[in-house]
Automatic annotation (TrEMBL):
EC identifiers of the protein: 2.7.8.13
Reaction equations catalysed: UDP-N-acetyl-alpha-D-muramoyl-L-alanyl-gamma-D-glutamyl-meso-2,6-diaminopimeloyl-D-alanyl-D-alanine + di-trans,octa-cis-undecaprenyl phosphate = di-trans,octa-cis-undecaprenyl diphospho-N-acetyl-alpha-D-muramoyl-L-alanyl-D-glutamyl-meso-2,6-diaminopimeloyl-D-alanyl-D-alanine + UMP
InterPro entries reported in the protein's UniProt record: Glycosyl_transferase_4, PNAcMuramoyl-5peptid_Trfase, PNAcMuramoyl-5peptid_Trfase_CS
Major location category of this protein: membrane
Species per Swiss-Prot/TrEMBL record: Microbacterium terregens
Function recorded in the entry: Catalyzes the initial step of the lipid cycle reactions in the biosynthesis of the cell wall peptidoglycan: transfers peptidoglycan precursor phospho-MurNAc-pentapeptide from UDP-MurNAc-pentapeptide onto the lipid carrier undecaprenyl phosphate, yielding undecaprenyl-pyrophosphoryl-MurNAc-pentapeptide, known as lipid I.
Membrane topology classification: Multi-pass membrane protein
Domain of life: Bacteria
Keyword annotations of the record: Cell cycle, Cell division, Cell membrane, Cell shape, Cell wall biogenesis/degradation, Magnesium, Membrane, Metal-binding, Peptidoglycan synthesis, Transferase, Transmembrane, Transmembrane helix
Localization annotation: Cell membrane; Membrane
Identification of the protein by name: Phospho-N-acetylmuramoyl-pentapeptide-transferase
Length: 366
């Protein structure tokens, strides 16, 4: 518990007190937000955001690493493979976003990496994560991830390796890549209004910290009578610590990112959030539950997909005035702060519902 609280507190303090320093540095380096022209036309208020320091995701990524390392050291809980895997996906996907952001800032255009190049970069980060996650068993044979589709825990009937080692590995790698790409891009799509992605991300990562800590309390170390309800998750306490550190860093950053934002997280931040959420879902064996935990992000990306499908099927008609959905609400005249706060509420309710269902599933077994 000491490690968890210390990690969250250090990360929060890092983001809260050092963000102004980074803002001055980013302004000096010319890291200002580029606003694309169509968005500026449809949303005139967005033009005022041009030049606001961006790439602020680097702040809470560094803050998470500092908080996590200090927390594990003070609580005498050395970093584990599972915790380092979460950091890998956070830093790796954040690096893909950083390249995209830097290209936009350097060229002073809203176009960075193309869609497919971005996906290729994400897969390059996700494949090593997936391979390592199925190796490095601990003393009782538990690996960080498992070759199963999971909901509240692994679904034994849905094993990739049941199809043979070669096809099983290929499907497993494709599954992990799909989760990571979907989570990081959904977080990226949701990052369209000041504080929306950061505030929603706090609820999501906070929910996963609770889930991992509960798994630590119910780890499979008892007799046969406990086996049906316990969790074979490897390093659940370390997962709770790294998630708490990330949530703390996001809270500190949100102080400066909430409307009206003094700094934007950029793609480096949104993809970093998606990486942490995806890693936590995979390593806590709650992959399908991720749809509910990250429901606010799923709403944003789902609205974009629905808009494109409807546009093609109706040959030019639009389902929303503008996608993602939060921009549709802007076009309907909703104030930005109203949209952001209500999306936070929706994200909180969905995350709490997911934790509730997770606990109910445990009760049904216990």
């Amino acid at each position: 518990m000491r490690s968890l609280l210390t990690a969250a507190a250090i990360s929060l303090a890092f983001s809260l007190f050092l963000t102004p320093v980074f803002i001055r540095l980013f302004r000096k380096w010319g890291w200002g937000q580029v606003i694309r022209t169509p968005e500026n036309v449809h949303n005139p208020s967005h033009g005022e955001k041009r030049g606001t320091p961006t790439m602020g995701g680097t702040i809470f990524i560094v803050g998470t690493i500092v908080g996590y390392l200090v927390g594990t050291w003070t609580g005498n809980n050395p970093p584990t493979v599972s915790g380092l895997l979460v950091l890998w996906l956070m830093v790796g996907l954040g690096a893909v976003g950083f390249i995209d952001d830097y290209m936009k800032v350097h060229r002073q255009r809203s176009l960075g990496l193309s869609g497919w190049r971005k996906v290729v970069g994400q897969v390059i980060v996700l494949v090593p994560f997936a391979i390592i996650a199925l190796n490095f068993p601990n003393r009782v044979g538990q690996t960080p991830a498992a070759a199963y589709v999971s909901v509240f825990r692994d679904v034994q009937a849905l094993s990739f390796m049941a199809l043979g080692p070669i096809l099983g590995w290929l499907l497993y790698l494709a599954w992990i890549s799909f989760i990571g790409v979907a989570a990081s891009n959904s977080a990226n799509v949701a990052d369209g209004l000041d504080g929306l992605a950061a505030g929603a991300g706090i609820f999501m990562v906070g929910a996963y910290s609770l889930i991992a800590f509960w798994q630590f309390q119910q780890v499979c170390t008892g007799g046969p009578e406990f086996l049906s309800a316990c969790y074979p998750t490897r390093d659940p306490l370390d997962l709770a610590i790294v998630a708490a550190a990330f949530a703390g860093a996001l809270i500190g950053f949100l102080w400066w990112n909430a409307p009206k934002a003094s700094i934007f997280m950029g793609d480096v931040g949104s993809m970093g959030i998606g990486g942490v959420v995806a890693a936590m879902a995979i390593l806590t064996r709650t992959e399908i539950l991720l749809v509910l935990v990250a429901g606010a992000y799923a709403l944003a990306s789902g609205s974009v997909i629905a808009q494109r499908l409807y546009f093609k099927l109706t040959r030019g008609k639009r389902l929303f005035l503008m996608s993602p959905f939060h921009h549709h609400l802007e076009m309907r005249g909703w104030p930005e702060i109203t949209i952001v706060v209500r999306m936070w509420i929706i994200s909180g309710m969905l995350a709490i519902s997911a934790v509730g269902l997770f606990y109910v599933e445990w009760l049904s077994r216990a």
